[in-house]
Amino acid sequence: MTWLVTGGAGYIGAHVAHAMVDAGLDVVALDNLSSGRRGFLPDTVPLGWVSVTDQDDVRDVMEENAITGVVHLAAFKYAGESVKRPLHTWRQNLDGTLSVLGAMQDLGIDRIVFSSTAAVYGTPDVDLVTEETPTHPESPYGSSKLAAERAIVEQAAARRSAGAPLRHTALRYFNVVGSSAPGVYDSSPHNLFPLVMDALSRGDAPRIFGTDYDTPDGTCVRDYVHVADVAAAHVVAAQALDSGEDLRTTYNLGSGTGTSVREIVDACIEAAGVDVAPVLTGRRPGDPARIVASGRRASHDLDWRMRHTVRDMVDSAWAAHPAAGGPARG
């Protein structure tokens, strides 16, 4: 059995590919390298250098490699940027998913793990987000990923009625950080960790927006999870589908407790070994005090848990990032 990892040369996708190889699974990656890097992948993993939105090309890669299951990560993942580029976001995220589903149907491939996002919840007014929390996405990114989830569910229903079942699940998570594969790092110009690390590598002080929230240290609390833990959940889900299990439709990969912005920034400063203090400024409009998800369902079904501490996240991210002289791979 061979799994196709779409977006496999990206930061998260490459970690999933590494984890699947380590688990003894046969893996093929698909990526157009618009943001991914061939060097992020294990040398043993073939790369189909095509766009996920081209169904014919996707089907060719699947057929040539005798694919039996898909982990679908390829997407335009930046919520803020998606507001500026809604059409691009919808094409990549929904059209890409429809392309994958169409190619799977053509070839009779019957299992898919969808890498979704907790952005489908928007800004929930609850202390702990569960899978039953209402979805209210607030960006084209969140909306398009939720639409992709629904497309998978409806396609599965259609295939079941036609006697060709499609087993599936979607994994929702917030902020993915850290590194566990040599030279694989978050290169996004929009994410917190690379922004903080770039600033610290220049000797600049990172900013903290808002210190008077109703949280233990007054700064916003968010759900940060180590990329290795996220990758492990994808592997377990794939293995469960391979064994014939019917997983639940959605799983949150949440910490259940969260981490404050101050904790993250202090840990980054310590890891960088620089003598700077964060700049404390006022709140930004629209920043909720706390957004944290429960991982209880995933813990029960997928053996999900936070195996890495905040310090693990920060130290591994810093060690891998080129700003700190990490072993970057092209």
Automatic annotation (TrEMBL):
GO terms for molecular function: UDP-glucose 4-epimerase activity. Its EC number is 5.1.3.2. The keyword Repressor does not apply. Its cofactor is NAD(+). It catalyses: UDP-alpha-D-glucose = UDP-alpha-D-galactose. Pathway: Carbohydrate metabolism; galactose metabolism. This is UDP-glucose 4-epimerase. Keywords: Carbohydrate metabolism, Isomerase, NAD. It comes from the Bacteria. The keyword NAD applies. Residues 3-254 form the NAD-dependent epimerase/dehydratase domain. Belongs to the NAD(P)-dependent epimerase/dehydratase family. It comes from Demequina muriae. InterPro entries: Epimerase_deHydtase, NAD(P)-bd_dom_sf, UDP_G4E.
